[in-house]
Amino acid sequence: MGGLSAGLLGVAASEVARAETLADVPDRAPGADLGAHSERSRFARLDRIPEATPGKRNIDPSDAINSKTPHQKLVGNITPTDLHYERSHSGVPDIDPAQHRLLVHGMVRKPLVFSVEDLKRMPSVTRIVFIECTGNGWENWKKADPDLTVQNTHGLVSTNEWTGVPLKFLIDLVAKDKGSTWMLAEGGDGAGVDRSIPLTDEIVNEAFVAYGQNGEPLRPAHGFPMRLVMPGFEGNLNIKWLRRLKFGNAPWMTRWETARYTQLLANGKARQFQLRMETNSVITQPSGMMQIQPGYNRISGLAWSGHGKIAKVEISTDGARTWKQAQLAQPVLSKAQVRFQMDWDWDGKPTRIVSRSTDEQGNAQPDRQTFIAAMGTNALFHYNAQQTWSIDEAGRVRNVLA
Amino acid sequence: MGGLSAGLLGVAASEVARAETLADVPDRAPGADLGAHSERSRFARLDRIPEATPGKRNIDPSDAINSKTPHQKLVGNITPTDLHYERSHSGVPDIDPAQHRLLVHGMVRKPLVFSVEDLKRMPSVTRIVFIECTGNGWENWKKADPDLTVQNTHGLVSTNEWTGVPLKFLIDLVAKDKGSTWMLAEGGDGAGVDRSIPLTDEIVNEAFVAYGQNGEPLRPAHGFPMRLVMPGFEGNLNIKWLRRLKFGNAPWMTRWETARYTQLLANGKARQFQLRMETNSVITQPSGMMQIQPGYNRISGLAWSGHGKIAKVEISTDGARTWKQAQLAQPVLSKAQVRFQMDWDWDGKPTRIVSRSTDEQGNAQPDRQTFIAAMGTNALFHYNAQQTWSIDEAGRVRNVLA
Question: Is 0.90 exceeded by the ipTM?
Answer without folding.
Answer: yes
